[in-house]
Amino acid sequence: MIEVLVADDQAAVRAGLVLILGAAPDVRVVGEAADGERAVGLARELRPDVVLMDVRMPRLDGISATRQIAGFADVLVLTTFDLDEYVFGALRAGAAGFLLKDVDADRLVEAVRTVAAGDGIIAPQVTRRLIGAFAARPEPPSPGPAGVAELTPREREVLGCLGEGLSNGEIARRLSMAETTTKTHVSRILGKLGLRSRVQAAILAQELAASGLTASSADAAAPDAPGSGSGDLSAG
């Protein structure tokens, strides 16, 4: 059973989300919060699998709440289509996914399942806007953390796929490897780069591409370590 905490300052929106999620046989809403402080408190108390987080909330905004929660629960951000630095901040804070509030019921439930299973998810419209926003930056972004140079060639390929918004299963099919191996690579990438979520890794991959440092380039990468192509880690 996937346990979910719903955080939104609008009572009608919370009620609708609870109704939708409650209809799914494998999802249970364990709490509701009308502001960011309450969301953090309930998340610490209830330890849900997923927190549905509104971005703009009173007392504590969704970015700050996500930053505090992301270490022990996956955060799926739900907001209106307003892709600005406020939303980028939520993703950088460690959110595992980002959806628009006009998402249909089936897609919302599937997104909760996806995030609970360890995959990240970003609405297709948002992915396109993210890529466009990075491409339109007047100044080149920084080359990223020093850990990028420690990635193996295969890890760089996986990072590039994360930047395209691919799931573990899609990455596995593209790179012709087992999905468990993909999870291993994602987990190692997050550890080497000091990141909290695969969405943060996707953003970094887009920044690297925008700066001309393609994530899949093996030129500066270390050779694959023994056993780096196998294993089974559920993280990522």
From TrEMBL:
Q: Where is this region: Disordered?
A: 215-236
Q: Which N-terminal residues, if any, form the signal peptide?
A: none
> At the top level of its lineage, which domain of life is listed?
Bacteria
One matching Pfam family is GerE
The record's keywords, sorted A to Z, are:
DNA-binding, Phosphoprotein, Transcription, Transcription regulation
Keyword check for Transcription regulation, yes or no.
yes
**InterPro entries with a match to the protein in the record:** CheY-like_superfamily, NreC/VraR/RcsB-like_REC, Sig_transdc_resp-reg_C-effctor, Sig_transdc_resp-reg_receiver, Tscrpt_reg_LuxR_C, WalR-like
Response regulatory domain: which residues?
3-116
Q: Which residues carry this modification: 4-aspartylphosphate?
A: 54
Q: Does the keyword Phosphoprotein apply?
A: yes
Residue ranges of domain HTH luxR-type in the record: 144-209
> Ranges of Low complexity compositional bias?
215-227
Protein name from the UniProt record:
Response regulator transcription factor
- Species source reads Actinomadura nitritigenes
